[in-house]
Amino acid sequence: MYDRFGEFDSAEEINETAVNLRKEGDREGLEVLARENGIDGETLELFLSGDLLYLCDGMTAAIGKIETEAGEADCAEIMADWVEYIKEQCFDKPQMAAAVRKKGKSLKGCIAELLKWSFKHQKPVDNGILKAAGVTAGRCTLGIPGMATAKRIITSYYIGG
Prior knowledge:
mainly alpha
């Protein structure tokens, strides 16, 4: 994912690199930087033309990172709902956007925390439900966190307790 430029810790680091690449006239480098960090082509063009002083702000850097990671993790269904919640928090809370952008924090790491919780909190599914669902297994458990618990886990992973 961060094959050429590595993982950046903040929007400021991305912008510093972008400004230097623009000064050098390195369009190809800027295209790679934008792609690696989930910055859209329209924004890149505005930056290249000089209409934008910086390539991203804290929120767009965080959203770009999350969208890029979500694409690589092939998030669907409940995981896609978790991704949307994280993105909403980045829009609403600059602290969350900064935390999401930090080196070492990743969507896979966050989902791993949700999965750990899920395995620790599995509950047996009632036999009547199994029968109604046509499940013939002798035993079935389920441990998906409710949204309130998922929100708490997500916030704890990125920001802390």
